[in-house]
Structures are given as structure tokens and as C-alpha cells.
Amino acid sequence: MSAYLTFENISMEFPGVKALDQMSFSADKGEVVAFLGENGAGKSTLLKILNGDYHPTKGRVRIGGREVSFSSPNDAIAAGVSVIYQERQLASFLSIAENIFIGNMPKKGILIDFGELNRKAKAIIEEFGLSVSPAERVKDISVAYQQMVEIMKAYSRNADIICFDEPTAPLTDAEIPILFRIIRKLKKMNKVIIYVSHRMNELFQIADRVIVFKDGKFVADKKMTETDEPELIRLMVGRDLGDVFQSLKRNKKQGEVVLEMNRVTTDRIKEVSLQVHAGEILGLSGLAGAGRTETARAVFGADPMVSGEMFLDGQAYRPKSPRDAMDHGIALCPEDRKLEGLALIRSVKENIDVSILNRLTRAGFVDEKKEAEFIRQSIEDFSIKTPSPEQKTLYLSGGNQQKIILARWLAIRPKLVIFDEPTKGIDVGAKAEIYQMICDTAGSGAAVILISSELPEVIGLSDRILVMKEGRVRGEILQKDATEALVLSYAMMSEMEREETNAEK
Questions:
Q1: Three-state DSSP class for 2?
Q2: Cα 34 from Cα 231, distance rounded (Å)
Q3: Cβ atoms of residues 261 and 449 within 8 Å
Q4: For residue 346, which of 72, 309, 352, 470 sits 20 to 30 Å off, Cα-Cα?
Q5: Among the three residues 194, 212, 237, which one is the final residue of a domain in this structure?
């Protein structure tokens, strides 16, 4: 008997880019099939073909043995396909119930039956084990709960094929088990589950099989019980990365204090004090909502100080705006690169040179020869994979988009660079490149503040780690003493609990 979902020789070409090349494999009901590959390997492109966003250049998709071709996502939904993307597609001013059943509202005559709507939504919310009201507006709930609303929306449609694209990216560690419980429930209901994630440990928890992509091509189809992480990394990147942190070329020479914060308080952080030196990588760790990004926003002039003081190179520093911070030599690579870091519809060239146009201009006109050489060198130095400098940034992988942000900021030769979740949504191969770029930034003499939710990352890269909780710095750990258990103890325990634990030891 043939599988329920089959891709046959799927190819997809964009101008200058072959995103998929003769991709063939299948998935059946009652199994979770993971997609794994570097950014730009073709995973999201295949999902968009299945969802009716793209039409393949060549090849066929079969569902239940029947060839299908969708003109729009609505066609895919009608055929029992739901794709849940990283970028949420919700109506923020409508209620949770309205979002779950949007396009399929229960009615009395021509009017929406809000009583029935809320009753049906409440039943699904209870199945998910969530503590929210169906009447709450989506804009008033957390990002993690918004992601759950997307999943409940797909669940309500009774789709036979449900695809998850990096579903845990906005979720906390406490919320991920809820998602996995729902996926296992869907699996028992005989659904086809496609699961895309860069978090390797998740795949071993939830997937039955993994399809490995590389450069738009099928590489391997592996049962999770018959493979391991090193093999999957070799398959997806074409090489053995070894211990990526041990192989980094690190800066060993630190200079004077570049930034000092002394009891800085904003609306979001409380009496934060820290120092970071030239050539040093200072890690900020903590759970979601601990105040790490909010500390970066204070330094970058995005959130005004209520009290406290900051010094930059020993001089009083109180930024009025991000522009003011930039003029003082401070760069911020934001957590949400698509929303806050890039103009996605603009070219690679425009996104890189926007920070130094004044240096490329003579008598009010851009020196095109000088600009072209600068862009060529930036693309080469940062290993940005693009068919041309004129390519729209929208069509590049997450890793290459992040490299564009790095190239832009480092061109201004900053004295302080803040990296906020620099490898979020980036595959392991590109991560290794980004890690070395962060170390090179410190090696150039700049001070670096690194914010990361991945404990191995913040421990592996930082010279010192400050752990935050509830808007305050709770502890400082040197790299030689740093362990995941110690970082978590500061992030999760109260002062009293930590003292009791240390006393027991």
C-alpha cells in the first residue's frame, strides 16, 4: 500500500537559485517525519509547495494516491493540509476563539453564534491543557500562547496533514512538553506530521524518521532509532564539526572597560550593574523574561533609563535613541532579525551598505565603484551565499541573513557589539561560522555582549556569564567555572534555595 503523502521529483527554481532539485520521498499517516538541513537547504520551500504558496517548476505531489496541485493555501486547507509557520498568521485584535475557527465560524442564520464558538474553543483549549479564556484577544497573550493558537487552529480543521515549521522557537522549556503531547495525540489520531526544527534533541524526542536535505537535494531517510546526532550533522553539512567550541580561534587579550552600567533601572530592568572590556565576550543568560534583551535595549537607547548611570570609555553615557547609540559606536544585532534587523524586500547590497553610506558618498552622490568593492569584500569576508548583491534579502536563508547584519554593523568598526540570540533558527553548520565571527569581533578589540537562550552556546563562547532573573543580575560565573547546572541554579532558584543547595554540597 502506498504512503499517504508523496513528493515525486520536486524541483523549484527562483531567479538565480535552484531551491529544490529532484526531491522525492513519502510520509504516511500515524508517523512524525522530521525535515533536517542547513538554512537554504529547501525545507521551507517544500512546505510552501505543499501549502499552495509556491508551484513547483517540476514534479508532482500526491495525497492519498491522488495527484494534487494547489493554487492557494485555501486550496490546501480544503484538501486537509495545515502548515504552521514560524511567522504567526493571526488576527491580533480578534479573540482566541475567533482565530481558532477563522473561516469556519459556527453560525445562527447569517450571524456568528458566539456562544457555540466559545464553547468549541474552550473544549480545544482544555484538551491542550492551557489556562486562557477563549474570549481573550490574541494581542494580549504571550508569544508562546499565540503559537499554541496557531496549532489549535490547525487542530480545529481536522487536517490529515499537519506541518510544524520551527514550532518551539517561541516556546519556553515548560511549554515544549505541552506541544509534544499534542503532537503525540495527533499521531495517535492517524495524522501525517511533518516537523521542521534545527534543535536536534527535539527530533530524537518526537520524530519517527528524519529526511535530510542538502542544497535542495534529498540526502537520506533515517529512522531516529537507527542514527545519532554526529551522523545527522555529517549528512546535513557534509563534514564532521567535532567540538565546535574547542576549535574556535579565541581572543585572549582584553583591554580597558568599554561599557559600565551602574544600578541602571528602566521600566523593565532593576538596578543592573555590569562591566564589559575591550576584547571580552560577556554572556547574558537567564530564562525567558529575565531581562536580557531589555538590558540590551537600555544600552542601545531603545528604552530610557529611569535611574542609574552608564559610562562608555570612562565618559558619562545616556543614549537618547538608537541613532545616538550608533553614533557612539554601539551596534545591536537584534533577536528578531526579520522584523527589526533587515529590510527584507531590499537587496543584499542595500542592507549591508546602509550603515556606511556617508563613507561611500562624494559631493552627495554614492561612489558606485567604491560601493561595489565594499559589497564584494563584505560578501567574501562573511561568506554570504547569494547569487548577486542585487538579490532580495527575503530569499536568503536565515544564516545568510544574519551574516548580512554582521557585515553591516562591523563595517562601522563599533566599540561595542550586542548579539541578541545570534543563532536563533540557524542550522549547526552556519552556527559554527557565526560563532567564529563573534570571536573575531572580540579579537578586533571590540567589547561583545552575547545574549543566548542556548546554554551550551553561552557557556562555550563567553569569557564571563551574568545570569539574570526577574530583571536583575543574580550571579556572575567565570568561563572556567561555568556549567549548565550552575547557570540554571542562578536562573531558577531564589537566593535562599541556592544557599541551601550550596550548604548541602
A1: coil
A2: 15
A3: no
A4: 72
A5: 237
